[in-house]
Amino acid sequence: MEKKILLTDCPDAKGLIAKITNICYKHQLNITKNDEFVDRAQGRFFMRTALEGIFNDDTFLKDLDMTLPEGAERRLVASGRKRVVLMVTKESHCLGDILMKCYSGALDVDIAAVVGNHKVLQPLVEKFDIPFHWVPAEGLERAQHEERVIEIVDRYEPDYLILAKYMRVLTPQFVTHFKNRIINIHHSFLPAFIGAKPYLQAFERGVKIIGATAHFVTDDLDEGPIIEQDVIHVDHSYSADDMASAGRDVEKQVLSRALQRVLEERVFIHGNRTVVFK
Fold first, then answer.
1. First CA to last CA across the chain, in angstroms?
2. Domain ranges, ordered by start, for the chain
3. 95-129: buried (b, 16+ CB within 10 Å) or exposed (e) per residue?
4. CATH 3.40.50.170 given to domain 82-276
């Protein structure tokens, strides 16, 4: 018995759930979980179907193609463990959280390697027996540096690339190379507090909530499809350091939840939006 997930994204039409589930029944596949959503504004139907059974992928997908409306997109993916590469700079909170959750089994993922443009986090990574690759950027054009990073990352053939507080802007060429496969985390102050020391800027403005956003990376800086967000309340008693500490907690929680959703194939990208089944 195999376990796979069918992801269907197509124009909305009557009877889609019945048609898809009938194809599953025809192929003697058991549906263990089914989630669906209709974006009425766009007239688009999304469905995630967890299946188990004996699969003949080609025949199954051909039958689906004959049933689904024109313009449909469908994927049949294995529900097993995914492989990721993490990219880091100097901040350890997101990296450390993912390493610990992977180590404890709370996050079912294979961390193939960590790539950093500084060496600061190498000792932490090596405690978990995970390869660390230092790719310094000094003295290199951005494109040259990214070529070296791509060469290393491609060796591991990751399903996703996770920017765990990687503090360099990526070129369009890099983003295209890993299209819809790069996940980033940033504080939710953008665009109000852009640049250095966002928590100090927030403190000086007397903000009452701080938060974080996890999203897919596109050519538009920090404007890609959002996967997960969260906020916490703060007040006048918080110093800038207190806000930064609270913000780090939110960032690691949001990134971890977003990664979990993506690894479980619960996220559809549609334009610059997502449909996320929780």
1. 25
2. 2-78, 82-276
3. bbbbbebbeeeebebebbbbbbbeeebeebbeeee
4. yes
Residue type, 142: R
The tokens describing 16, both together, are 């889609």
Task: Out of 2.40.160.60, 3.30.200.20, 3.30.70.260, 2.60.40.10, select the CATH number for domain 2-78.
Answer: 3.30.70.260
Closest C-alpha among 51, 127, 119 to residue 90: 119
271 in the Ramachandran plot: left (φ > 0), alpha (ψ -120 to 50) or beta? Answer: left
pLDDT per residue over 97-146, tens digit each? 999 999 999 999 999 999 999 999 999 999 999 999 999 999 999 999 99
Residues annotated catalytic, as ranges: 222
Tell me phi and psi for residue 200, to 5 degrees.
-65, -40
